[in-house]
Specification:
The chain is of the alpha+beta class. It has helices spanning 3-11, 31-36, 48-63, 85-88, 99-113, 181-184, 186-205, 221-235, 260-280, 302-329, 348-360, 366-372, 393-397, 425-438; strands at residues 67-71, 115-123, 126-133, 138-142, 148-152, 165-169, 211-214, 252-255, 334-338. It has 14 helices and nine strands.
Length: 446
């Protein structure tokens, strides 16, 4: 028992030791269960190559996405505090592989089983690390109060809570665990399994020659062996393709074609592959899996299909993981996100035109433009261009508007002589000086 287990038992004496971490990454499980989520022979995972291709593609794409933590009120400000290092770098202190590998495995569990489990390494009430748990090890259930609880490795005790295990389920009908694609499409997998067995037995025991050569005379074994040897040497292999065959002595040669039942078998295999894809990732463009199909290019080609992949396949899956991490592992003022900008990039010319317009309108700075292309920044803060003829310069640049200083009240004019009496020369000079200070013009006569 290591120090971590002893500390856990000391802090939580009512519970047994925490589960052993899955250091072998589920290698004790069979290939069928590790890849497709099938748990027994009642659910034979036919189309194993199809299922693996889908899970492999989706888990690698999602697991390799850049991750960030931002402030909810200001999404442009990234948070890099050490306490959240397990979400941005290594998931736990024992992990010595690339952090991307941990996320790829986690998404493989989510895609193959529709359930992602991770043991929470807690300290002082805060999670400091995540340890992946193979879905076959965890048994989720609801207690008498309807609260989520978990058992591990088939043991009745101890019982763990969501504070111990992070659980991210996919679509679920009972509200407890996600539905495995293998179980959802069990009938399709069984049908594909029978097709696989038929094809295997046909190729192993069946006979399917390319041509038939018929002769009017009987041929002994030695002559037949000599014919097969010479025929294969002269006409076998790719280099002899398209050559001519000389038939003598009334012999006839007839080429065989694929029988209709065998052609239907190939079509059935293609149909089964489409059904399996529908259970794992409906809407996934076929060309991304290396399949040739008659699917539409959505009018504008591969770029539109890449956008379709992000909007209708990846974003729904990533939103599920983001929501679970935000609710369980982060405070309310922070938000965990996957970055998808590089998957939505267009061609270089289009990007340059868009960035140019954003730069001219004051939306994009020079450093932000350079960062999009992986170039070093200029280091000039708030380097924004603003068209003067369409914006309020002072308000947009952040400079304070000039404040008008209050003017002091004008000094009262010296009292003049009583009405009807002329002013003396001294009084007229004083009144003229007072008007000059006040900025008024008035003819003064003595």
């Amino acid at each position: 028992m290591n120090w971590w287990q002893r500390t856990y038992n000391w802090l939580y004496p009512q519970a047994a030791a925490p589960p052993q971490r899955d250091t072998h990454n589920g290698q004790y499980q069979g290939l069928r269960e590790r890849i497709t989520g099938a748990e027994d022979e009642s659910a034979p995972p036919s189309g194993l190559a199809t299922a693996f291709a889908i899970v492999n593609f989706l888990s690698n794409v999602q697991g390799s996405l850049p991750r960030k933590i931002v402030e909810v009120n200001d999404p442009t400000r990234k948070v890099t505090d050490p306490e959240f290092r397990f979400l941005l770098r290594r998931p736990n202190v024992d992990w010595r592989k690339p952090s991307v590998h941990w996320w790829i495995n986690s998404f493989a569990y989510l895609e193959g089983w529709r359930n992602l489990y991770a043991w929470r390494d807690n300290a002082a009430g805060e999670t400091e690390g995540l340890f992946g748990l193979h879905p076959s090890r965890v048994e989720p259930f609801l207690d008498e109060l309807g609260r989520a609880r978990y058992r591990l490795d088939g043991k009745k005790t101890p019982v763990y809570t969501p504070d111990d295990i992070l659980h991210i389920p996919g679509i679920s009908f009972d509200g407890v665990a996600g539905i495995s694609p293998v179980r959802a499409g069990l009938q399709t997998h069984r049908h594909a399994h029978l097709l696989d067995l038929w094809g295997y037995n046909f190729l192993r025991r069946g006979i399917s020659p390319a041509v038939i050569v018929s002769s009017q005379d009987e041929v002994d074994d030695d002559a037949a062996k000599e014919f097969y040897k010479r025929f294969n040497e002269q006409h076998g292999g790719p280099r002899a393709a398209g050559g001519a065959i000389l038939v003598q002595g009334g012999n006839q040669i007839e080429r065989l074609v694929i029988p209709p039942d065998e052609a239907q078998f190939l079509e059935s295999k293609q149909h089964t592959r489409e059904e399996v894809l529908g259970y794992y990732a409906p809407g996934l463009p076929h060309h991304m899996l290396g399949w040739k199909s008659n699917t539409s290019n959505f009018g504008t080609g591969v770029e539109a299909q890449a956008r379709h992949l992000v909007q209708f396949v990846l974003m729904t899956r990533l939103a599920l993981v983001e929501s679970a991490i935000n609710d369980e592992l982060l405070p309310d003022d922070l938000e965990f996100k996957f970055e998808l900008q590089h998957l939505l990039r267009g061609d270089t010319k289009t990007m340059a035109e868009v960035f140019k317009k954003m730069r001219e309108q004051g939306v994009l700075s020079a450093d932000q433009w350079l960062a999009e292309f992986g170039m070093p920044p200029r280091g000039i803060p708030d380097d924004y261009l603003i068209p003067k003829n369409t914006t309020r310069i002072l308000a947009d640049t952040g400079e304070p508007a000039p404040v008008e200083e209050p003017q002091e009240p004008a000094a009262p004019a010296p009292p003049g002589p009583p009405e009807g009496q002329p002013m003396t020369y001294r009084e007229a000079i004083a009144k003229a000086l007072a008007h000059r200070e006040n900025g008024t013009k008035e003819k003064v006569t003595a």
